[in-house]
Amino acid sequence: QPWDVAAGALLCAETGVVLTRLDGTELDVREPGSLLAGTPSAHAEMLRRLAEA
């Protein structure tokens, strides 16, 4: 539910953590699905590895 994700998404935004869907698309808290969060470099690396899988 949106309220389960919204506070965490705000914390990520305020601290510089990149938060997207697993495929790298923009997060919409109203839509269900898995998330990917990390520092900018870790997030980019995980996206690269997920694309290779």
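Next protein, fold it too.
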Amino acid sequence: MDFFISTFIKIFFIMTPFFVLSVFITITNEATLNEKRKLAVKVTLSVVVISLVLLFFGQHIFKVFGITLDAFKIGAGALLFLTAVGLIYGNKDGQKPTDKNLSDLAVVPLALPITIGPGTIGVLLLMGAEFNSFSKLFLGSLALLCAIFFIGMMLYLSSLIEKFIGKDGLLIISKITGLFLAALSAQIIFDGIKSFFNL
């Protein structure tokens, strides 16, 4: 039980749930309640699939394609930076996002790299190598699924949280989130370059 709880807490906070929630609220501020809930479900399912694949097959996939974690950091950081720019400057055409446009955001950037960033990927790859018994693998996988479920529920109930924040608060969160995302993307890219060149 201690192993399950410690693994759950570790995964839950590494996925930065409150940061993910703020990005989700910002991106879906013009969406309907139904669209938000659909997106929350899609993001949760995407995170489950990506996380389990990384846990069980991550090391093999990276080896087969010759991808290093450093290269992934640089690529993920670049994608994250584009998202940050969009949040800071807003939707220039002023159009309300459609259900199709929101669906496109489920995997990139909401699931990857915002929820499952390079840090989470590194932890999942490491856990996959460390779970050397069936009991550890079972409990670790269960802890992972529980952590993702809790984050998914936070996203699903984001409208309730949004009501307390208000439009002005949402606008402020949007700009601040964009700035933090830009800084985070830069840090991810710098870390990737630094590790790549052994600096």
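About the second fold: Residues 92-96 have pLDDT under 50 and may be disordered.
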